[in-house]
Specification:
mainly alpha
């Protein structure tokens, strides 16, 4: 068993998760607004989707890849509309003075929403495949693929643990006014990502 495959997958997962995008913004907003657990669960939804796409790229499931790329326009529309909804909802939601205690049902919906939203970008498969080739993964066996995928998931999870734990500590020091503006800025960014997704569909 070559641990190098796992380490490379770890680096890939961490790097892709650290990329700034609508999911990062949503995760940051939830952490500051609802606390560490809400942010972490949201991050795990993203990590799970990264693991799924990493699996498709690592195992070379070309049928699934081709299907997702063919449907990418409609997938972007669905994802774009949902991002617009989340952006408006975030803009209209007043920040809580204390982090809300998340219930099991809320955590489930947070996980599912980030998981499905992350899946609305099928080109992520191409990104994974390109990175695998670029750093010389050289996957030639099932065991190597499993190690890479496990590394991708844990690398992504590691990023969200670091980010959400840091933000939960920072939140304590933020004044209510800052929490209000973070909500507004986060809502605008998420809304713009949703509009951009729809515009790309029109083009």
């Amino acid at each position: 068993m070559n641990i190098a495959f796992f380490v490379r997958g770890l680096v890939i997962g961490f790097s892709i998760a650290a990329t700034v995008g609508p999911m990062s913004t949503l995760c940051i907003q939830r952490t500051i607004h609802k606390g560490f657990l809400a942010g972490l669960i949201s991050g795990l939804g993203i990590a799970s989707a990264d693991g799924c796409y990493g699996s498709i790229a690592a195992f070379g499931i070309t049928v699934v890849t081709t299907l997702l790329i063919r449907l990418q326009l409609w997938i972007h529309v669905i994802g774009g509309l949902f991002l617009i909804y989340l952006g408006i909802r975030t803009l209209l939601t007043p920040p809580a003075e204390r982090a809300a205690r998340a219930k099991a049902t809320n955590l489930s919906s947070m996980y599912l929403s980030t998981f499905l939203l992350t899946l609305t970008n099928p080109l992520t498969i191409i990104s994974f495949a390109a990175i695998f080739a670029g750093i010389g993964i050289g996957i030639n066996s099932t065991s190597a693929s499993v190690l890479v995928v496990a590394g991708v998931f844990l690398g992504s999870t590691l990023w969200w643990i670091i980010l959400t734990s840091s933000l939960s500590i920072l939140r304590i020091k933020l004044a209510p006014m800052w929490l209000h503006w973070i909500n507004r800025v986060s809502g605008i960014i998420i809304l713009l990502f949703g509009i951009f997704a729809l515009l790309s569909f029109v083009r």
